[in-house]
Amino acid sequence: MAKLAEDLNKKRLRSSNITVSISIALVLFLVGLFGLILINAQKYSDYIKEQLVVEAYFDDYIDPRDSAKAEQLQKLTYERIKLQPFVKKAKFISKQEATELAKKQLGIETDALFEGDIFPPSVEVTLKPEYVDPEKINDVVKKLNEVEGVKEVKNDSKLTIEVYNNLNRILTWILAFSILFLIVAMVLINNSIRLKIFSKRFIIKTMQLVGAKRRFILKPFVKEAVILGIIGAIIGLTALFTGWYFFTSEIGTPFVQDTNQYIWLVAIVFGVGILITVISTVFATWRFLASSVDDLYYS
């Protein structure tokens, strides 16, 4: 009879641990999913910002017959522009290339409308994402104008401001939803742990009544919480990255775009899983340690 009761308790304990681990895994899966969305939203935002280029046109005062000197000065100016701290990428566009680009944009295949290469050479400057900011873009344009050999700098500031504000608004909403969901995740995991500890409230009180110290009683529960948090994180991350692998394979993008950010995501998911389970376990266990025997029947 005693053995039957012991086997039944073991089955209940195993079932309880499985249920809690799955609950934690589901919650951490969604936490990781929001993390992936946030990471890739930031990358997409940076990609969009990099499409907002600034064009620096060369000073065209040199006699066209002195082409060698003109090319040398243009190359020197191009190198000066590349060394600017706000420049991520710079592309030199010659007169011939500028003419070809104009033809493509206008949908013209003939040279009849163009009397030679009438467009000035320039440098197409791709800025670092942090400099595509309405408060910084004017300083960038000013510094480019100060570069020796640059005659004029063109930038569609209105479009830049509009795109920047829209992207920031989207990222803010995604971040807000991520924080909100993290709070919900904490509540859900906390409730799962509390239900698990609730089922052991009589064992906790019995240990206390026979003289066990609170630290001694808490220790095995905390260890179990850490293990459950790790198991839940492993299951959740395995499901997350499996789904992410198939998704990236379908759309043809790299599975890992930034190793450091993915490492941080894994660390955060593990940290959230362990931290919440431990804190919830400590609070739930402490509650029953501080209650009387009679309160256990009405908790």
Q: Could you characterize what this model shows?
A:
- By secondary structure, the chain is an alpha+beta fold.
- It folds into 2 domains: 1-47 and 162-295, no CATH class; 53-131, Alpha-Beta Plaits (2-Layer Sandwich), CATH 3.30.70.
- Helices cover 71% and strands 8% of the residues.
- The protein has 8 helices and 4 strands, in the order H-E-H-E-H-E-H-E-H-H-H-H.
- The protein has helices at 2-50, 67-82, 95-106, 134-146, 157-198, 201-209, 214-251, 259-290, and strands spanning 54-58, 87-93, 122-127, 150-154.
- Strands 2-3-1-4 form a 4-stranded antiparallel sheet.
- Helix 1 packs antiparallel against helix 5 (157-198) and helix 5 (157-198) runs parallel beside helix 8.
- The longest helix is centred in the first third of the chain and has 49 residues, at 2-50.
- Residues 1-6 have low confidence and may be disordered.
